[in-house]
Amino acid sequence: MIISMTGFGRGEASEEGITATVEIKSLNSRYLDLSTRLPQQLQDKELEVKELVQKTINRGKLNITVYISESDEAGPSIQIDEKKVKGYTRILNDLRKIAGIDDPVTISNITQFGDVFVKEEEDETVVEKKWSVAKKALEDALNSLLKMRTQEGNQLKNDLVDRIEFIDENIEVITNETNGRAGETRDKLLERIQNLIEDDKIDEERLELEVAILVDKMDVTEEIVRLRSHLKFFLEAVEQPEPAGRRLNFLTQEINRELNTIGSKANNSDIAQYVVKCKEALEQIREQVQNVE
Fold this sequence. Notes:
Layout: E1 7-15, E2 18-27, E3 32-37, H1 46-54, E4 60-70, E5 78-80, H2 82-99, H3 107-110, E6 117-119, H4 124-178, H5 181-196, H6 204-218, H7 221-237, H8 245-266, H9 269-289
Parallel strand pairs: 3-4
Antiparallel strand pairs: 1-2, 2-4, 5-6
Helix pairs in contact: 4-7, 4-9, 5-6, 7-8, 8-9
């Protein structure tokens, strides 16, 4: 099964006035690379986030952002510092008397001092409740991401199969071109050598041996057999349920190696043209494979 490494997923969950929203952006990467942005109260949940992601995603660079919001019903999570309120009130009253001001001290006067409000520390129960909601949103976002990556993967698969079949068709042409070439090449080589060397200096057996070795070096039958085997394994890999990116990348390298050998050994301009077509298609495959999980 082909799954793309690029995609976007979003999930949301709400419970008891707490709403969690998770967004995931996924890009290409050789490994699973996570970057998380969590609210302050959930900073220690980063390892648990990673464990949840690893159950669904194998490769890719993921940017995960978690947002937590609370409804008005939950009330503000702040407290009043009574000691500071009383202290500021006393100071303001003393200042009012010294300055001869008759106006009484008001709440707005006191709240000018920002430190009269203290953020309420959330207990472990509240933090776990927020994490429970965030976890549901994260699972929803991962499912959304996987759905998008799978859809893109299906498109990638169709493109890869088409290009592999194109290579296979050209290899069939090369195979037909090379059939019977060994005998023809041997005859041409013997004729050229005999025209260059005086007859009385030719060792016929030695000549036959050297020509046979040279013809064998020009034979691409083994390379074609291995290449077709790689093409077959490639098509099988795109159908398997497990992630195939690394295997496809390896097979792409092996296909390229055999094509290079065929091109260098064939010593034929027509065959070279078909090899070039195959390598152009393979380069496009190689680029696409970089995006496969």
